[in-house]
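Late entry, evening session. Most of the bench is empty. Finally got around to the prediction I had been postponing all week. Sequence below, unchanged from the version circulated by S.P.
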Amino acid sequence: MTELPDSGVALAGPPVPGPDAAFFLDLDGTLLEIAARPDAVVVPPELPELLSRLQEALGGAVAVVTGRGLAIARGYTGVPSLPIGAEHGAVLDPSLPGAVPLPVPPPDWRRAADEWAAARPGTLAEHKTHGLVLHFRQRPEAQAEALALLEELLRGDGHGFHIVPAHAAAELRPVGADKGGAVRRLMAVPPFAGRRPIFIGDDVTDEDGMAACAEYGGHGLRVPDDFAGRPALVRAWLSRVAATLSDREGRR
């Protein structure tokens, strides 16, 4: 059983994996609570220490694979040695091998996104190196309009992009850029190679990563199903994993 911090409630979590595990972790909705706006997320102060302990317990085989930009993800995690696949694997930090050229949104797309958000209070246009996102969590009635704009931008050759739904958002992402690609590239090199990968995520954008883990004999854990939809419980369980594996190693 894992106790949810600040609740006093003990909830059953997945079994603790063996020392041959590798973790691929989503950020928003998994390690971090979802915020009303992407720039309003609160990072628990204990997160860097948790990730460092987990890395130590697993010989470094821990990575974050997120839709966030690389600099933002690096700032949130606070662990310089942590491999990060950003923008759903479209942007790779230097520790990830096998980067491939990907398109960038044309300037007129970015202008159209900014104009769309400016005309709709409560929405937000988020710009990434290889994509853009329209957020409408505070204005859910704007969903249809967001999708309509992205569909309009893609008319013609589409510049190699497609539309991907997310939590209260719609995203333009390069075709072929997904979290599964980041998992596969890492699983080809130490310290991940030969391990059983586990991907923890909370929404449809994480399914590619989970499918990739299955190719290597691993699996996915879904926050809504396996952790009662609570990132705090994910963190508590990962802390237990780190402590349990470290204790086992210490008894050898």
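Two things to note before I forget:
Helices lie at 47-57, 70-77, 107-118, 143-154, 179-187, 207-215, 223-226, 231-250.
Residues 1-10 have pLDDT under 50 and may be disordered.
Will write this up properly tomorrow.
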